[in-house]
Design brief:
With about 180 residues, the chain is of the alpha/beta class. The chain has three helices and ten strands. About 20% of the residues lie in helices and about 40% in strands.
């Protein structure tokens, strides 16, 4: 879990000790809401831009805060940049879709279908009006009302070969309801 490094310098073939430093391993958790921005005049429209790098439930509240920002800015369109988003929490993907789709209510977001070995675990996810807030230990510490956009006319999603899983679920689940 930790390692000690000795720092020395060499001069004329002689090593001289400077100091020892101990480095301890730590788990880092990076906020996946990497960038939120509003462009005020793209062909006369106010466009929100969100770079979202992973569906991590311990950052549901930060994602909701980004949508509070977009909601307060009254954006007309949203660009969702998922180019390096490999997926993650299905529940968080339902929250994100609920933030984007103005008329979401509690309609079905996605079906969960297992193969015949586990069909007893089949289920579904709904769009939501509230989200769960978790700490980095994945312990629920609260709830928040979802900041739902009510002014957007279009959603543009940037993808790459690294875009997968929960990202695809958001795209496919919103297509029947809004212009994606």
């Amino acid at each position: 879990d930790s390692v000690t490094l000795s720092f020395v310098y060499e001069s004329g073939g002689t090593l001289t000790f400077i100091q020892d430093k101990t480095i301890t391993a730590a788990v880092l958790s990076e906020n996946p809401v990497y960038l939120k921005k509003v462009f005020n005049d793209i062909n006369g429209k106010k466009v929100g831009y969100l770079v979202y790098n992973g569906f991590r439930s311990s950052y549901n509240d930060e994602l909701n805060e980004a949508f509070s920002f977009f909601k307060n800015e009254n954006i007309d369109e949203l660009i969702l940049d998922l180019r390096i988003n490999g997926g993650g929490s299905v529940g968080t993907s339902a929250y994100l879709a609920s933030m984007i789709y103005a008329n979401a209510g509690l309609d079905k977001f996605a079906d969960l279908k297992f193969n015949n070995k586990h069909s007893n675990q089949d289920g579904f996810y709904n769009f939501e009006n509230t989200l769960n807030v978790f700490n980095t230990n994945n312990e629920k510490i609260g709830e928040q009302t979802i900041n739902r956009l009510s002014t957007i006319n279009g959603l543009y999603v940037l993808t790459s070969k690294s875009t997968a899983s929960a990202s695809e679920m958001v795209i496919n689940s919103l297509k029947p309801y809004i212009d994606v």
